[in-house]
Amino acid sequence: MIQTRGLTGAQTMLRVLAKMGVEKIFASPGSEWSPVWEALAEPGVEGMPQYLSTRHEEVAVGMASGYAKSTGKLPAVMIHTTVGSLHATMGMRGAIREQVPMVVFSGESMGYGEDEGPDPGGQWLGHLSNIGGPAKLVEQTVKWSFGVNNKAILPATVQRACQLAMAAPKGPTFVSLSMEHLFDKMIKDVPGELGFAPGATADPKGIEELANLLAGAKNPVIVTEDSGRTEKSVHCLVEIAELLGCAVCETRSTGALNFPRTHPLHSGYDPRKALAGADAILLLAVIAPWHPASATPSPGATVAILDENPLRHDMPYYGYQADLCLTGEIESSLEHLLAALKKKVSANDASRKQKAEEISKKNNAQRKAWRDEALALASQKPMDTRWVAHELSQALPADAMVVEETITHRLAVHRYLDGVKPGSYFAGCVGGLGTGLSTALGVKSANPKRPVVCLIGDGSFNYDPVPAVYGAAQEHNLPFLTVMFNNQGYLSQKSGIPRYYPEGWAVKSKNFSGLHIAPCPEYAQIIKAFDGYGEKVEEPGEVRKAIERGLRAVAGGQSALLDIRLKPVEDIVERGEG
Q1: Lower Cβ count inside 10 Å, N or C end of the chain?
Q2: How far apart are CA 232 and CA 373, in angstroms?
Q3: What three-state secondary structure class fits 74?
Q4: How far apart are CA 537 and CA 539, in angstroms?
Protein backbone atom coordinates (compact mmCIF):
# COMPACT_ATOMS: atom_id res chain seq x y z
CA MET A 1 0.00 0.00 0.00
CA ILE A 2 1.27 3.47 -0.91
CA GLN A 3 -0.17 5.87 1.63
CA THR A 4 -1.51 8.92 -0.14
CA ARG A 5 -4.72 9.65 1.79
CA GLY A 6 -4.52 13.17 3.21
CA LEU A 7 -1.65 14.24 0.97
CA THR A 8 -2.06 16.88 -1.70
CA GLY A 9 -2.29 15.75 -5.31
CA ALA A 10 1.21 17.16 -5.86
CA GLN A 11 2.70 15.25 -2.93
CA THR A 12 0.91 12.13 -4.12
CA MET A 13 2.25 12.41 -7.65
CA LEU A 14 5.85 12.63 -6.43
CA ARG A 15 5.54 9.79 -3.93
CA VAL A 16 3.89 7.43 -6.38
CA LEU A 17 6.53 8.18 -9.03
CA ALA A 18 9.28 7.46 -6.51
CA LYS A 19 7.66 4.14 -5.56
CA MET A 20 7.46 3.23 -9.24
CA GLY A 21 11.20 3.69 -9.64
CA VAL A 22 11.21 7.10 -11.32
CA GLU A 23 14.51 8.79 -10.43
CA LYS A 24 14.39 11.84 -12.73
CA ILE A 25 11.74 14.33 -13.81
CA PHE A 26 12.57 16.38 -16.92
CA ALA A 27 10.44 19.48 -16.81
CA SER A 28 9.42 22.50 -18.83
CA PRO A 29 6.29 23.45 -16.94
CA GLY A 30 4.07 26.44 -16.42
CA SER A 31 2.47 28.07 -13.41
CA GLU A 32 0.05 25.21 -12.78
CA TRP A 33 2.86 23.19 -11.21
CA SER A 34 3.30 25.47 -8.16
CA PRO A 35 1.94 22.72 -5.84
CA VAL A 36 4.60 20.32 -7.11
CA TRP A 37 7.39 22.84 -6.61
CA GLU A 38 6.15 23.33 -3.06
CA ALA A 39 6.11 19.57 -2.51
CA LEU A 40 9.66 19.27 -3.84
CA ALA A 41 10.79 21.79 -1.23
CA GLU A 42 9.22 19.78 1.61
CA PRO A 43 11.94 18.80 4.11
CA GLY A 44 12.51 15.30 5.42
CA VAL A 45 11.06 13.40 2.46
CA GLU A 46 13.54 10.86 1.18
CA GLY A 47 13.78 9.25 -2.23
CA MET A 48 12.02 11.94 -4.25
CA PRO A 49 12.84 12.07 -7.98
CA GLN A 50 15.44 14.59 -9.12
CA TYR A 51 13.81 17.56 -10.85
CA LEU A 52 15.66 18.99 -13.87
CA SER A 53 14.36 22.14 -15.52
CA THR A 54 14.94 22.00 -19.28
CA ARG A 55 13.53 25.35 -20.57
CA HIS A 56 11.57 23.79 -23.47
CA GLU A 57 9.06 20.96 -23.80
CA GLU A 58 10.86 19.30 -26.68
CA VAL A 59 14.06 19.33 -24.63
CA ALA A 60 12.24 17.71 -21.71
CA VAL A 61 10.90 14.86 -23.85
CA GLY A 62 14.18 14.48 -25.74
CA MET A 63 16.15 14.27 -22.50
CA ALA A 64 13.70 11.68 -21.17
CA SER A 65 14.18 9.67 -24.35
CA GLY A 66 17.97 9.73 -24.14
CA TYR A 67 17.87 8.86 -20.44
CA ALA A 68 15.48 5.92 -21.00
CA LYS A 69 17.42 4.58 -23.98
CA SER A 70 20.72 4.59 -22.14
CA THR A 71 19.47 3.23 -18.79
CA GLY A 72 16.31 1.21 -19.43
CA LYS A 73 14.72 3.14 -16.55
CA LEU A 74 11.41 5.02 -16.58
CA PRO A 75 11.65 8.83 -16.59
CA ALA A 76 8.86 11.33 -15.97
CA VAL A 77 8.22 14.56 -17.85
CA MET A 78 6.30 17.66 -16.72
CA ILE A 79 5.09 20.13 -19.36
CA HIS A 80 2.77 23.11 -19.60
CA THR A 81 -0.86 22.26 -20.39
CA THR A 82 -2.17 22.43 -24.00
CA VAL A 83 0.48 24.73 -25.42
CA GLY A 84 3.38 22.76 -23.94
CA SER A 85 1.80 19.49 -24.99
CA LEU A 86 1.77 20.62 -28.59
CA HIS A 87 5.47 21.51 -28.37
CA ALA A 88 6.15 18.04 -26.97
CA THR A 89 4.28 16.02 -29.57
CA MET A 90 7.25 15.69 -31.94
CA GLY A 91 9.33 14.03 -29.25
CA MET A 92 6.46 11.86 -28.04
CA ARG A 93 5.71 10.71 -31.58
CA GLY A 94 9.32 9.61 -31.92
CA ALA A 95 9.18 7.84 -28.55
CA ILE A 96 6.13 5.77 -29.45
CA ARG A 97 7.64 4.74 -32.79
CA GLU A 98 10.91 3.78 -31.06
CA GLN A 99 9.11 2.11 -28.12
CA VAL A 100 10.79 4.37 -25.54
CA PRO A 101 9.03 4.48 -22.14
CA MET A 102 8.23 7.69 -20.29
CA VAL A 103 5.27 9.08 -18.37
CA VAL A 104 4.40 12.63 -19.42
CA PHE A 105 2.33 14.95 -17.22
CA SER A 106 0.65 18.17 -18.25
CA GLY A 107 -1.36 20.54 -16.11
CA GLU A 108 -4.70 22.10 -16.79
CA SER A 109 -7.61 23.80 -15.01
CA MET A 110 -11.07 22.28 -14.74
CA GLY A 111 -12.70 24.92 -12.53
CA TYR A 112 -11.51 28.16 -14.15
CA GLY A 113 -11.67 29.99 -10.81
CA GLU A 114 -15.31 29.03 -10.17
CA ASP A 115 -14.46 26.30 -7.65
CA GLU A 116 -13.43 26.59 -4.01
CA GLY A 117 -9.75 26.74 -3.25
CA PRO A 118 -6.87 28.58 -4.94
CA ASP A 119 -7.74 30.44 -8.12
CA PRO A 120 -5.60 29.17 -11.06
CA GLY A 121 -5.94 32.53 -12.82
CA GLY A 122 -7.79 34.04 -15.74
CA GLN A 123 -5.27 32.91 -18.32
CA TRP A 124 -6.76 29.41 -18.30
CA LEU A 125 -10.11 30.46 -19.69
CA GLY A 126 -8.74 33.02 -22.10
CA HIS A 127 -5.58 31.44 -23.48
CA LEU A 128 -4.67 27.96 -22.30
CA SER A 129 -7.74 25.74 -22.59
CA ASN A 130 -8.89 23.54 -25.46
CA ILE A 131 -12.00 21.40 -25.70
CA GLY A 132 -11.03 17.96 -24.45
CA GLY A 133 -7.90 19.30 -22.76
CA PRO A 134 -4.27 18.30 -23.32
CA ALA A 135 -5.01 14.58 -23.22
CA LYS A 136 -7.22 14.93 -26.30
CA LEU A 137 -4.65 16.97 -28.19
CA VAL A 138 -1.83 14.41 -27.92
CA GLU A 139 -3.64 11.07 -28.02
CA GLN A 140 -2.27 10.18 -31.46
CA THR A 141 1.34 10.57 -30.31
CA VAL A 142 1.29 8.38 -27.17
CA LYS A 143 0.21 4.82 -26.35
CA TRP A 144 -2.28 5.92 -23.65
CA SER A 145 -3.67 9.35 -22.80
CA PHE A 146 -6.02 10.35 -19.97
CA GLY A 147 -7.17 13.47 -18.19
CA VAL A 148 -7.78 12.79 -14.50
CA ASN A 149 -11.36 13.93 -13.82
CA ASN A 150 -11.74 13.03 -10.14
CA LYS A 151 -9.31 13.33 -7.25
CA ALA A 152 -10.24 9.87 -5.97
CA ILE A 153 -8.54 8.22 -8.93
CA LEU A 154 -5.46 10.43 -9.16
CA PRO A 155 -3.07 8.24 -7.10
CA ALA A 156 -3.88 5.00 -8.91
CA THR A 157 -3.86 6.73 -12.30
CA VAL A 158 -0.29 7.97 -11.82
CA GLN A 159 0.73 4.42 -10.93
CA ARG A 160 -1.10 2.96 -13.92
CA ALA A 161 0.54 5.42 -16.32
CA CYS A 162 3.95 4.19 -15.13
CA GLN A 163 2.96 0.57 -15.54
CA LEU A 164 1.56 1.09 -19.04
CA ALA A 165 4.66 3.00 -20.17
CA MET A 166 6.87 0.04 -19.21
CA ALA A 167 4.51 -2.64 -20.52
CA ALA A 168 5.38 -4.18 -23.89
CA PRO A 169 5.52 -2.60 -26.34
CA LYS A 170 6.99 0.21 -24.25
CA GLY A 171 6.21 3.82 -25.03
CA PRO A 172 5.11 7.21 -23.72
CA THR A 173 1.96 7.57 -21.64
CA PHE A 174 0.27 10.87 -20.93
CA VAL A 175 -1.64 12.11 -17.88
CA SER A 176 -3.29 15.50 -17.53
CA LEU A 177 -3.66 16.71 -13.94
CA SER A 178 -5.75 19.74 -13.06
CA MET A 179 -4.27 22.42 -10.85
CA GLU A 180 -7.28 22.08 -8.58
CA HIS A 181 -6.49 18.40 -7.96
CA LEU A 182 -2.83 19.16 -7.30
CA PHE A 183 -3.89 21.49 -4.47
CA ASP A 184 -6.61 19.20 -3.15
CA LYS A 185 -6.25 16.51 -0.48
CA MET A 186 -6.44 12.90 -1.64
CA ILE A 187 -9.07 10.57 -0.19
CA LYS A 188 -7.63 7.23 -1.38
CA ASP A 189 -4.41 5.27 -0.98
CA VAL A 190 -2.84 3.47 -3.90
CA PRO A 191 -3.99 -0.18 -3.64
CA GLY A 192 -0.53 -1.76 -3.78
CA GLU A 193 3.10 -1.25 -4.69
CA LEU A 194 2.75 -3.09 -7.98
CA GLY A 195 5.85 -3.45 -10.11
CA PHE A 196 6.22 -3.60 -13.86
CA ALA A 197 5.10 -6.62 -15.82
CA PRO A 198 8.17 -8.13 -17.55
CA GLY A 199 8.04 -8.32 -21.31
CA ALA A 200 6.77 -11.68 -22.46
CA THR A 201 9.12 -14.04 -24.29
CA ALA A 202 7.89 -15.08 -27.72
CA ASP A 203 5.73 -18.21 -27.88
CA PRO A 204 7.90 -21.35 -27.35
CA LYS A 205 6.31 -23.12 -30.32
CA GLY A 206 6.99 -20.10 -32.48
CA ILE A 207 10.62 -19.97 -31.35
CA GLU A 208 10.97 -23.66 -32.18
CA GLU A 209 9.50 -23.05 -35.63
CA LEU A 210 11.86 -20.10 -36.16
CA ALA A 211 14.84 -22.21 -35.07
CA ASN A 212 13.83 -24.93 -37.55
CA LEU A 213 13.51 -22.33 -40.32
CA LEU A 214 16.95 -20.81 -39.69
CA ALA A 215 18.69 -24.14 -39.10
CA GLY A 216 17.23 -25.62 -42.27
CA ALA A 217 17.99 -22.67 -44.52
CA LYS A 218 20.95 -22.70 -46.88
CA ASN A 219 21.32 -18.91 -46.87
CA PRO A 220 19.60 -17.27 -43.89
CA VAL A 221 20.03 -13.52 -43.38
CA ILE A 222 19.12 -11.45 -40.31
CA VAL A 223 18.05 -7.82 -40.70
CA THR A 224 17.95 -5.69 -37.55
CA GLU A 225 17.30 -2.11 -36.60
CA ASP A 226 16.57 -1.75 -32.88
CA SER A 227 17.37 -5.12 -31.31
CA GLY A 228 20.51 -3.82 -29.58
CA ARG A 229 18.79 -1.98 -26.74
CA THR A 230 20.64 -4.24 -24.25
CA GLU A 231 24.18 -5.57 -24.41
CA LYS A 232 22.94 -9.11 -23.80
CA SER A 233 20.76 -8.86 -26.91
CA VAL A 234 23.84 -7.93 -28.95
CA HIS A 235 25.86 -10.84 -27.55
CA CYS A 236 23.00 -13.29 -28.23
CA LEU A 237 22.69 -12.12 -31.80
CA VAL A 238 26.45 -12.55 -32.32
CA GLU A 239 26.26 -16.14 -31.06
CA ILE A 240 23.26 -16.88 -33.27
CA ALA A 241 24.93 -15.45 -36.38
CA GLU A 242 28.19 -17.30 -35.71
CA LEU A 243 26.36 -20.57 -35.08
CA LEU A 244 24.38 -20.23 -38.32
CA GLY A 245 27.27 -18.73 -40.31
CA CYS A 246 24.86 -16.11 -41.62
CA ALA A 247 25.01 -12.45 -42.57
CA VAL A 248 23.57 -9.75 -40.31
CA CYS A 249 22.53 -6.47 -41.90
CA GLU A 250 21.47 -3.30 -40.13
CA THR A 251 19.14 -0.83 -41.83
CA ARG A 252 20.14 2.71 -42.64
CA SER A 253 17.69 3.88 -39.96
CA THR A 254 19.15 1.75 -37.19
CA GLY A 255 18.57 3.37 -33.82
CA ALA A 256 20.96 1.26 -31.73
CA LEU A 257 24.18 -0.65 -32.19
CA ASN A 258 22.70 -4.08 -32.84
CA PHE A 259 25.75 -6.03 -34.02
CA PRO A 260 29.47 -5.18 -33.74
CA ARG A 261 30.31 -3.23 -36.87
CA THR A 262 33.76 -4.73 -37.28
CA HIS A 263 32.43 -8.28 -36.98
CA PRO A 264 33.16 -10.30 -40.15
CA LEU A 265 29.46 -11.21 -40.48
CA HIS A 266 28.25 -7.58 -40.36
CA SER A 267 27.01 -7.02 -43.90
CA GLY A 268 26.45 -3.29 -44.00
CA TYR A 269 23.33 -1.15 -44.14
CA ASP A 270 21.63 -2.08 -47.39
CA PRO A 271 19.16 -4.94 -46.77
CA ARG A 272 18.32 -5.23 -50.48
CA LYS A 273 21.94 -6.00 -51.27
CA ALA A 274 22.48 -8.29 -48.27
CA LEU A 275 19.30 -10.28 -48.92
CA ALA A 276 20.12 -11.26 -52.50
CA GLY A 277 19.76 -15.03 -52.67
CA ALA A 278 18.47 -15.45 -49.11
CA ASP A 279 16.04 -18.33 -48.56
CA ALA A 280 15.15 -17.34 -44.97
CA ILE A 281 14.93 -13.77 -43.65
CA LEU A 282 14.59 -12.82 -39.99
CA LEU A 283 13.41 -9.24 -39.42
CA LEU A 284 14.49 -8.49 -35.87
CA ALA A 285 13.00 -5.32 -34.31
CA VAL A 286 12.75 -3.61 -37.70
CA ILE A 287 10.28 -0.91 -38.65
CA ALA A 288 10.88 -0.64 -42.41
CA PRO A 289 13.60 -2.92 -43.84
CA TRP A 290 13.09 -2.13 -47.53
CA HIS A 291 10.93 -0.13 -49.93
CA PRO A 292 8.37 -0.65 -51.24
CA ALA A 293 7.13 -2.93 -48.50
CA SER A 294 5.49 -5.44 -50.81
CA ALA A 295 8.70 -6.10 -52.80
CA THR A 296 10.63 -8.67 -50.75
CA PRO A 297 14.24 -8.43 -52.04
CA SER A 298 14.71 -12.20 -52.32
CA PRO A 299 11.69 -13.72 -54.09
CA GLY A 300 10.70 -17.07 -52.67
CA ALA A 301 12.33 -16.47 -49.29
CA THR A 302 10.46 -17.26 -46.08
CA VAL A 303 10.19 -14.15 -43.91
CA ALA A 304 9.99 -14.30 -40.10
CA ILE A 305 9.42 -11.30 -37.83
CA LEU A 306 10.34 -11.01 -34.15
CA ASP A 307 9.50 -7.85 -32.21
CA GLU A 308 7.46 -6.57 -29.28
CA ASN A 309 5.16 -4.93 -31.83
CA PRO A 310 5.84 -6.97 -34.98
CA LEU A 311 2.96 -5.76 -37.15
CA ARG A 312 3.34 -2.13 -36.03
CA HIS A 313 -0.26 -1.37 -35.10
CA ASP A 314 0.67 2.32 -34.77
CA MET A 315 1.48 2.64 -38.49
CA PRO A 316 -1.23 3.32 -41.09
CA TYR A 317 0.25 0.80 -43.55
CA TYR A 318 2.63 -2.12 -43.17
CA GLY A 319 2.58 -4.44 -46.17
CA TYR A 320 5.66 -6.59 -45.43
CA GLN A 321 5.69 -10.33 -46.01
CA ALA A 322 5.26 -12.19 -42.72
CA ASP A 323 5.25 -15.98 -42.99
CA LEU A 324 6.06 -16.37 -39.30
CA CYS A 325 5.25 -13.58 -36.86
CA LEU A 326 6.49 -13.72 -33.25
CA THR A 327 5.57 -11.20 -30.56
CA GLY A 328 8.06 -11.04 -27.73
CA GLU A 329 10.63 -9.13 -25.73
CA ILE A 330 13.85 -9.19 -27.74
CA GLU A 331 16.50 -10.16 -25.17
CA SER A 332 14.72 -13.15 -23.64
CA SER A 333 13.39 -14.30 -27.01
CA LEU A 334 16.90 -14.29 -28.50
CA GLU A 335 18.16 -16.28 -25.51
CA HIS A 336 15.52 -18.94 -26.12
CA LEU A 337 16.18 -18.92 -29.87
CA LEU A 338 19.90 -19.41 -29.26
CA ALA A 339 19.21 -22.34 -26.93
CA ALA A 340 16.93 -23.93 -29.53
CA LEU A 341 19.49 -23.49 -32.31
CA LYS A 342 22.26 -25.06 -30.27
CA LYS A 343 20.23 -28.27 -30.24
CA LYS A 344 19.85 -28.23 -34.02
CA VAL A 345 23.09 -26.77 -35.39
CA SER A 346 26.60 -28.09 -34.84
CA ALA A 347 29.21 -25.48 -33.98
CA ASN A 348 31.65 -27.47 -36.13
CA ASP A 349 29.50 -27.62 -39.28
CA ALA A 350 32.06 -27.31 -42.10
CA SER A 351 29.59 -25.99 -44.66
CA ARG A 352 28.46 -23.20 -42.34
CA LYS A 353 32.05 -22.27 -41.58
CA GLN A 354 32.80 -22.08 -45.28
CA LYS A 355 29.74 -19.90 -45.84
CA ALA A 356 30.81 -17.62 -42.97
CA GLU A 357 34.29 -17.27 -44.49
CA GLU A 358 32.77 -16.26 -47.83
CA ILE A 359 30.59 -13.65 -46.12
CA SER A 360 33.54 -12.41 -44.06
CA LYS A 361 35.78 -12.03 -47.09
CA LYS A 362 33.12 -10.01 -48.89
CA ASN A 363 32.37 -7.81 -45.87
CA ASN A 364 36.02 -7.15 -45.06
CA ALA A 365 36.64 -6.10 -48.65
CA GLN A 366 33.66 -3.73 -48.46
CA ARG A 367 34.91 -2.15 -45.24
CA LYS A 368 38.38 -1.70 -46.75
CA ALA A 369 36.83 -0.05 -49.80
CA TRP A 370 34.92 2.36 -47.55
CA ARG A 371 38.08 3.19 -45.64
CA ASP A 372 40.10 3.72 -48.83
CA GLU A 373 37.30 5.92 -50.14
CA ALA A 374 37.56 8.17 -47.08
CA LEU A 375 41.36 8.32 -47.09
CA ALA A 376 41.33 9.38 -50.73
CA LEU A 377 39.45 12.50 -49.59
CA ALA A 378 42.02 13.49 -46.96
CA SER A 379 43.10 16.66 -48.77
CA GLN A 380 39.84 17.61 -50.46
CA LYS A 381 38.52 21.04 -49.60
CA PRO A 382 35.69 21.80 -49.02
CA MET A 383 35.49 18.58 -47.04
CA ASP A 384 33.50 15.46 -47.75
CA THR A 385 31.26 13.80 -45.14
CA ARG A 386 33.11 10.51 -45.48
CA TRP A 387 36.44 12.05 -44.48
CA VAL A 388 34.91 13.76 -41.45
CA ALA A 389 33.23 10.53 -40.32
CA HIS A 390 36.52 8.66 -40.73
CA GLU A 391 38.44 11.19 -38.64
CA LEU A 392 35.71 11.17 -36.03
CA SER A 393 36.01 7.40 -35.73
CA GLN A 394 39.76 7.76 -35.12
CA ALA A 395 39.36 10.46 -32.45
CA LEU A 396 36.51 9.09 -30.35
CA PRO A 397 37.57 7.48 -27.06
CA ALA A 398 36.53 3.89 -26.39
CA ASP A 399 33.93 4.91 -23.81
CA ALA A 400 32.22 7.55 -25.99
CA MET A 401 28.44 7.56 -26.28
CA VAL A 402 27.10 8.80 -29.62
CA VAL A 403 23.74 10.34 -30.53
CA GLU A 404 23.05 10.90 -34.23
CA GLU A 405 20.64 13.32 -35.95
CA THR A 406 22.25 13.79 -39.36
CA ILE A 407 19.77 12.31 -41.91
CA THR A 408 21.72 12.60 -45.19
CA HIS A 409 25.08 12.02 -43.48
CA ARG A 410 23.78 8.98 -41.58
CA LEU A 411 25.09 6.29 -43.90
CA ALA A 412 28.66 7.60 -43.61
CA VAL A 413 28.30 7.77 -39.83
CA HIS A 414 27.23 4.12 -39.75
CA ARG A 415 30.01 2.98 -42.05
CA TYR A 416 32.91 4.70 -40.32
CA LEU A 417 31.98 4.80 -36.63
CA ASP A 418 32.77 1.15 -36.19
CA GLY A 419 34.45 1.39 -32.77
CA VAL A 420 31.34 2.39 -30.82
CA LYS A 421 30.43 -0.17 -28.18
CA PRO A 422 27.03 -1.84 -27.65
CA GLY A 423 24.76 0.35 -25.54
CA SER A 424 26.61 3.48 -26.65
CA TYR A 425 24.88 4.53 -29.87
CA PHE A 426 21.43 6.13 -30.14
CA ALA A 427 19.32 7.69 -32.86
CA GLY A 428 18.25 11.24 -32.13
CA CYS A 429 15.10 11.38 -34.24
CA VAL A 430 12.41 9.33 -35.92
CA GLY A 431 10.84 11.16 -38.85
CA GLY A 432 10.85 14.63 -37.35
CA LEU A 433 13.84 16.78 -36.50
CA GLY A 434 14.58 18.71 -33.35
CA THR A 435 15.37 16.17 -30.62
CA GLY A 436 18.99 15.15 -31.29
CA LEU A 437 20.68 17.65 -28.96
CA SER A 438 18.11 16.96 -26.24
CA THR A 439 18.57 13.20 -26.58
CA ALA A 440 22.31 13.67 -26.15
CA LEU A 441 21.69 15.76 -23.05
CA GLY A 442 19.47 13.00 -21.65
CA VAL A 443 22.16 10.40 -22.31
CA LYS A 444 24.65 12.64 -20.52
CA SER A 445 22.32 13.01 -17.52
CA ALA A 446 22.36 9.23 -17.17
CA ASN A 447 26.10 8.92 -17.81
CA PRO A 448 27.72 12.05 -16.37
CA LYS A 449 31.25 10.59 -16.33
CA ARG A 450 31.30 9.40 -19.94
CA PRO A 451 31.93 11.60 -23.02
CA VAL A 452 28.74 12.13 -25.00
CA VAL A 453 28.89 13.26 -28.62
CA CYS A 454 25.96 14.49 -30.70
CA LEU A 455 26.40 14.27 -34.48
CA ILE A 456 24.02 16.65 -36.19
CA GLY A 457 23.47 18.28 -39.56
CA ASP A 458 23.14 22.03 -39.82
CA GLY A 459 19.57 21.54 -41.04
CA SER A 460 18.69 19.44 -38.00
CA PHE A 461 20.47 21.92 -35.73
CA ASN A 462 18.11 24.66 -36.89
CA TYR A 463 15.11 22.61 -35.73
CA ASP A 464 16.50 21.92 -32.25
CA PRO A 465 15.73 24.32 -29.35
CA VAL A 466 19.41 25.22 -29.15
CA PRO A 467 19.45 27.91 -26.42
CA ALA A 468 17.31 25.73 -24.14
CA VAL A 469 19.59 22.70 -24.63
CA TYR A 470 22.87 24.50 -23.99
CA GLY A 471 21.33 26.48 -21.16
CA ALA A 472 20.15 23.28 -19.45
CA ALA A 473 23.55 21.67 -20.04
CA GLN A 474 25.22 24.65 -18.36
CA GLU A 475 22.71 24.80 -15.49
CA HIS A 476 22.96 21.11 -14.61
CA ASN A 477 26.67 20.69 -15.41
CA LEU A 478 26.07 18.19 -18.21
CA PRO A 479 28.65 19.12 -20.86
CA PHE A 480 28.66 17.28 -24.18
CA LEU A 481 30.25 17.67 -27.61
CA THR A 482 28.25 18.65 -30.69
CA VAL A 483 29.80 17.86 -34.08
CA MET A 484 27.93 19.68 -36.85
CA PHE A 485 28.08 18.35 -40.40
CA ASN A 486 27.54 21.71 -42.07
CA ASN A 487 26.81 21.61 -45.80
CA GLN A 488 24.97 24.94 -45.58
CA GLY A 489 21.64 23.63 -46.72
CA TYR A 490 19.21 20.76 -47.05
CA LEU A 491 20.61 17.98 -49.21
CA SER A 492 17.35 16.07 -48.96
CA GLN A 493 15.59 19.02 -50.64
CA LYS A 494 17.96 18.76 -53.59
CA SER A 495 17.97 15.00 -54.06
CA GLY A 496 14.29 14.64 -54.94
CA ILE A 497 14.14 17.01 -57.89
CA PRO A 498 16.65 15.19 -60.18
CA ARG A 499 14.98 11.88 -59.36
CA TYR A 500 11.49 13.07 -60.28
CA TYR A 501 12.37 15.66 -62.93
CA PRO A 502 15.76 14.67 -64.42
CA GLU A 503 15.22 16.92 -67.42
CA GLY A 504 13.23 19.56 -65.59
CA TRP A 505 13.71 23.29 -65.22
CA ALA A 506 15.32 23.06 -61.78
CA VAL A 507 18.05 20.70 -63.01
CA LYS A 508 18.68 22.69 -66.19
CA SER A 509 18.92 26.04 -64.42
CA LYS A 510 20.41 24.66 -61.16
CA ASN A 511 17.67 26.57 -59.36
CA PHE A 512 16.68 24.40 -56.39
CA SER A 513 14.12 26.02 -54.10
CA GLY A 514 14.36 25.42 -50.36
CA LEU A 515 17.97 24.32 -50.64
CA HIS A 516 20.12 26.84 -48.83
CA ILE A 517 20.66 27.84 -45.23
CA ALA A 518 22.21 31.18 -46.08
CA PRO A 519 23.93 33.29 -45.17
CA CYS A 520 25.63 30.62 -43.12
CA PRO A 521 25.75 31.66 -39.45
CA GLU A 522 28.84 31.47 -37.29
CA TYR A 523 27.40 28.57 -35.30
CA ALA A 524 30.49 28.20 -33.13
CA GLN A 525 29.71 31.56 -31.52
CA ILE A 526 26.34 30.39 -30.17
CA ILE A 527 27.72 28.06 -27.54
CA LYS A 528 30.07 30.72 -26.19
CA ALA A 529 27.03 32.49 -24.75
CA PHE A 530 26.71 29.48 -22.44
CA ASP A 531 30.39 29.45 -21.44
CA GLY A 532 31.08 26.71 -23.95
CA TYR A 533 33.85 26.02 -26.44
CA GLY A 534 33.16 26.69 -30.11
CA GLU A 535 35.27 26.22 -33.21
CA LYS A 536 34.78 26.45 -36.98
CA VAL A 537 36.72 23.76 -38.85
CA GLU A 538 37.47 24.22 -42.56
CA GLU A 539 40.78 22.38 -43.07
CA PRO A 540 40.68 18.58 -43.57
CA GLY A 541 43.86 18.13 -41.57
CA GLU A 542 42.34 19.90 -38.56
CA VAL A 543 39.26 17.68 -38.11
CA ARG A 544 40.78 15.11 -35.77
CA LYS A 545 42.66 17.76 -33.78
CA ALA A 546 39.49 19.85 -33.43
CA ILE A 547 37.54 16.83 -32.16
CA GLU A 548 40.27 16.18 -29.61
CA ARG A 549 40.12 19.84 -28.50
CA GLY A 550 36.35 19.61 -28.18
CA LEU A 551 36.60 16.44 -26.09
CA ARG A 552 39.16 18.13 -23.81
CA ALA A 553 36.77 21.04 -23.33
CA VAL A 554 33.98 18.65 -22.36
CA ALA A 555 36.29 16.83 -19.93
CA GLY A 556 36.99 20.23 -18.40
CA GLY A 557 33.31 20.97 -17.85
CA GLN A 558 32.40 22.95 -20.99
CA SER A 559 29.95 21.95 -23.67
CA ALA A 560 31.58 22.19 -27.09
CA LEU A 561 30.36 22.82 -30.63
CA LEU A 562 32.45 22.07 -33.72
CA ASP A 563 31.08 23.64 -36.90
CA ILE A 564 32.69 21.45 -39.57
CA ARG A 565 32.27 23.04 -42.99
CA LEU A 566 31.57 20.53 -45.75
CA LYS A 567 31.13 20.92 -49.47
CA PRO A 568 27.98 23.10 -49.86
CA VAL A 569 24.88 21.28 -51.04
CA GLU A 570 24.73 23.30 -54.25
CA ASP A 571 28.09 21.78 -55.28
CA ILE A 572 27.29 18.17 -54.31
CA VAL A 573 26.84 15.64 -57.08
CA GLU A 574 24.52 12.90 -55.86
CA ARG A 575 26.30 9.62 -55.10
CA GLY A 576 23.12 7.62 -54.57
CA GLU A 577 23.61 7.51 -50.79
CA GLY A 578 20.62 9.67 -49.93
Answers
A1: N
A2: 34
A3: coil
A4: 6
